[in-house]
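Hey team,

Filing this mostly as a record. A colleague (T.K.) asked me to run one chain through the structure pipeline before their review meeting, and I want the input and output archived in the tracker in case anyone asks later how it was produced. No errors, nothing strange. Just documentation.

Input sequence:
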Amino acid sequence: MGLGTIFALALALSADAFSFSLGLGMTGVNKRQVYLISLTVLAFHIIMPLTGYFAGGFVGSFLGRWAGYVGAAVLVLLGLRMVWEGFSENQEENFSRFILTSVYGIVVLGVTVSIDALSVGFTLGTQQVAVGLAAAVIGVVSGIMSFFGLEFGKKVGEWMGRRAVAAGGSILVLIGIKLFV
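Output structure:
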């Protein structure tokens, strides 16, 4: 597998990370959160393919299927909660703020958005590829795409106001549904 193919794979994997980050960015993120989330996505997009590569067949097929369902469910539930927040008059309880400001929330989202990279790791194990290089390229591209998604989402969110939380939640719901299908 050549570098061009690895880069194309990285772009395909980072499309979900971009969409996810766009939705989160619409809720309003600060610079620190942009960097933290982007670096978390980058790290998990390196860790997951390496985990998949070394995990092997049986464990991989079991985890890949169920982990994907769990990841999709988390995105759908998070998205629905954000849609509810966007239309709620009570802004005191802000679930998206909790997700963006808690280490636990950011790690869960990092795992969720990079779960497809786990399956890619299984595939990398069957190919003639420098797995470290492939994981690094996937991670860097996904981190960069997340950064731009968050920044663009932040601009859209400033323009849309409170409706942006509902729009961002809708994006997460659609990504989660896509992962189920």
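Quick notes for T.K.: The chain has a mean pLDDT of 76. Residues 27 and 165 are 5 Å apart (CA to CA).
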